[in-house]
């Protein structure tokens, strides 16, 4: 372990954490997050605002939007529109947050990999990058094959990953090992901690060894460390505590 810290401009909030307060006051929520110290955000849910509205709120708050979560169906329904919205937000990554349950098989993931390949080409042409966000079951082994490995087989130029650290560990995988074995594939992270009982916890208050993971984050190509908590009791206390947890980390 060294005295390395996460760069301040790499510490962000994935806005799913703040969904309850965002629904009441999107603009004010972004300003308060900036006041805590966050520099970036990942968008998840518009709450009846346009992409241009949200870009304006972020600009007013002095925050940079780095990505938006875009549902899998839009790959076929309106991918050009989704990419245009990501451009409007000023973000660089369009992130598919999950693969539909009916595709949760080897053949289904091969279908998704093919869809990601085509969508990744369109993203590249638009000056953006397609990422996939995992859940624990994406690491299931089916018929002798780890499903996530099928996606890792897609051309790195066309598909990267927003690695959710909690779900990777929940799925039985070591993020540090993924960073080392698949260099440069993980530009964004969901930094989500795990309580002793396996539930979600504020960053730094749980049992995940982020220091051991982040010792290899450079290999993984990590640029953004986005805090996430799926069900915070108090979103603001969680946001403040997790920000401290990330800024105080030495690795």
TrEMBL record:
MF GO annotations: isomerase activity
Keywords noted in UniProt: Isomerase
Keyword Iron in annotation: no
Keyword check for Transferase: no
Tree of life domain: Bacteria
Pfam family, one: AP_endonuc_2
InterPro entries to which the protein is assigned, alphabetical: IolE/XylAMocC-like (IPR050312), Xyl_isomerase-like_sf (IPR036237), Xyl_isomerase-like_TIM-brl (IPR013022)
All copies of domain Xylose isomerase-like TIM barrel, residue ranges: 32-218
PANTHER family: HYDROXYPYRUVATE ISOMERASE (PTHR12110), INOSOSE DEHYDRATASE (PTHR12110:SF41)
Protein name stated in the entry: Sugar phosphate isomerase/epimerase
Organism: Kribbella soli
Classification of source organism: Bacteria, Bacillati, Actinomycetota, Actinomycetes, Propionibacteriales
């Amino acid at each position: 372990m060294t005295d390395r810290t996460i760069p301040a401009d790499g510490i962000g909030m994935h806005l799913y954490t703040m969904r309850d307060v965002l629904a009441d006051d999107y603009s004010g929520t972004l300003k308060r997050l900036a006041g805590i110290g966050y520099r970036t955000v990942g968008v998840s849910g518009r709450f009846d605002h346009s992409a241009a509205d949200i870009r304006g709120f972020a600009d007013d708050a002095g925050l940079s939007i780095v990505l938006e979560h875009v549902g899998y169906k839009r790959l076929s329904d309106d991918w050009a529109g989704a990419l245009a919205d990501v451009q409007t937000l000023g973000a660089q990554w369009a992130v598919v947050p999950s693969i539909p349950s009916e595709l949760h098989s080897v053949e289904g993931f091969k279908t998704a990999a093919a869809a990601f390949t085509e969508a990744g080409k369109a993203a590249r042409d638009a000056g953006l990058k397609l990422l996939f966000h995992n859940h624990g079951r994406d690491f299931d082994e089916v018929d002798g094959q780890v499903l996530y490995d099928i996606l890792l087989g897609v051309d790195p130029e066309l598909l990267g990953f927003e690695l959710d650290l909690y779900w990777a560990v929940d799925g039985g995988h070591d993020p540090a090992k993924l960073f080392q074995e698949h260099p440069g594939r993980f530009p964004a992270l969901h930094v989500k901690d795990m309580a002793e009982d396996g539930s979600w916890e504020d960053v730094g208050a749980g049992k995940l060894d982020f220091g051991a993971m982040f010792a290899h984050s450079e290999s993984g190509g990590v640029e953004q460390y986005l805090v996430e908590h799926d069900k915070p009791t108090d979103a603001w206390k969680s946001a403040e505590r997790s920000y401290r947890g990330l800024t105080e980390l030495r690795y």
